[in-house]
Amino acid sequence: MVEDASPQGSECPVARTLESIGDRWSLMIIRDAFDGIRRFSEFQKSLGVAKNILASRLKTLVEVGVFDIRPASDGSAYKEYVLTEKGREIFPVVVSIRQWGERFLFKPQETRSVLLDNASGQPLMPLEVRSSNGQKLEPSDCHRMRLVNGVKDA
């Protein structure tokens, strides 16, 4: 039996995630939503992306459950794109990408944005992968296991 070559048929969660939200524009839309942007025109103005690309990405993000479309909160005829719980769960992914970029893609004095904790006004601590008992894990400390119907494959 040949495995489905499409990412949506893949057993790999990374492949499926990238198929759903992994392109540049989708992640930038989600980033802007975390910054409070909700309307099509606001996303378009912030990102400078072509309207057809923005419409396509927003449609996909709604279809996969990252956004809900709701009437505008100000009572106008506009619609707003509101992050769902599923969409809000992407926050650590965006923070991780941001922190990697801050660490490796900027010179020390180069202008950049910084994500701050509202309560303390301080930059966030670097994200780390931790074991169930709290120990920091590296890639060599982990392995993949195949589950079939939620059960370890024999």
Automatic annotation (TrEMBL):
The keyword DNA-binding applies. SUPFAM superfamilies: Winged helix' DNA-binding domain. Keywords: DNA-binding, Transcription, Transcription regulation. GO terms for molecular function: DNA binding. Residues 12-109 form the HTH hxlR-type domain. It comes from the Bacteria. The keyword tRNA processing does not apply. It comes from Pseudomonas arsenicoxydans. This is Transcriptional regulator.
